[in-house]
């Protein structure tokens, strides 16, 4: 059940990066359920095509494989959107990820993989979609998924650094592009039950149970709770809001036990 009007995104076109799985899939699904036409992209063609097939039962959903770290592949996604829809109204930068490691054990390749994905990739997609659609249209909306890294992110320093960069980038482009009627905001999820969490093995799995006990609401968040926050920021319901980060974390940004993360690897 939804509290939003079913036609909130009627005649609107949205791109969700990483829309084949987890939170991105839930966002794509919610946008479709509220009338949007959706494009999803990610690296792995087969699961991406399968996700688009399933989502198409809810409305128009197209896909194109793309590594957001390669700006030429991002341009190809823009080409598809231009051919299929001739416009873009909403960009949801959701693609991202990292691996758990103490900072001093992250090698150059691992550091660059995470920075390129989360910071550079998010920038490439935002710039390309603004240049190709939002600025010429004099209208656009960017919502970027980051993480809760307000007090640093021990155990995942690479992603903390990248997402802090993205949050600051969002504040800059929100100001530079306000004159083009473009808004840009972030959503910072806490620990959300998703396919992403399934990628973690011990000792992170055990940590997830502890993080649930620490949470003041005594639970992890749901993908729908993140999708609902994205819907708010992507819609005219938030028309005077830009450059902010909306925390969807059951208060973890005020009350999180960072020692759990520091001690994760029993160093
Ligand atoms: C504690 C609660 C946290 C809750 C908050 C956050 C939750 C989430 O974000 S859930 C979402 C999780 N989903 C993902 O993370 C999926 C996406 N992740 C990835 O695709 C990779 O982690 C990536 C970001 C590193 C990108 O992958 P790719 O470019 O394909 O890179 P490779 O797999 O080839 O790895 C490159 C390089 O990175 C180092 N490395 C990768 N994985 C690990 C690892 N598990 N441990 C240590 N180092 C790792 C390594 O240097 C790799 O190079 P090679 O050694 O040559 O393989
Ligand atoms: N689950 C959680 O607790 C939290 C998640 N987040 C963030 O939310 C977002 C979604 O995570 P979640 O759904 O949980 O995890 P998933 O691992 O399911 O989602 C990650 C998605 O990003 C895509 N992706 C990864 N790298 C690239 C790339 N270089 N180019 C294009 N697509 C890429 C993946 O598809 P493919 O492999 O096909 O490329 C996948 O669809 C991520 O940014 C994550 O860090 C933030 C806070 C908490």
Automatic annotation (TrEMBL):
Catalytic reaction(s) noted: (2E)-hexenoyl-CoA + NADPH + H(+) = hexanoyl-CoA + NADP(+); (2E)-dodecenoyl-CoA + NADPH + H(+) = dodecanoyl-CoA + NADP(+); (2E)-tetradecenoyl-CoA + NADPH + H(+) = tetradecanoyl-CoA + NADP(+); a (2E)-enoyl-CoA + NADPH + H(+) = a 2,3-saturated acyl-CoA + NADP(+)
Major localization class: other
Gene symbol of the encoding locus: fadH
InterPro entries found in the cross-reference section: NAD(P)-bd_dom_sf, Peroxisomal_t2-enoyl-CoA_red, SDR_fam
Coiled-coil annotated residue ranges, if any: none
Any matching Pfam family: adh_short_C2
This protein's pathway: Lipid metabolism
Keyword Lyase set for record: no
Function: Participates in chain elongation of fatty acids. Catalyzes the reduction of trans-2-enoyl-CoAs of varying chain lengths from 6:1 to 16:1, having maximum activity with 10:1 CoA. Has no 2,4-dienoyl-CoA reductase activity.
Native species: Neolewinella maritima
Known partners and oligomeric status: Interacts with PEX5, probably required to target it into peroxisomes.
Keyword Lipid metabolism: yes
GO molecular function, a single term: 2,4-dienoyl-CoA reductase (NADPH) activity
Protein name: Peroxisomal trans-2-enoyl-CoA reductase
Organism taxonomic ancestry: Bacteria, Pseudomonadati, Bacteroidota, Saprospiria, Saprospirales
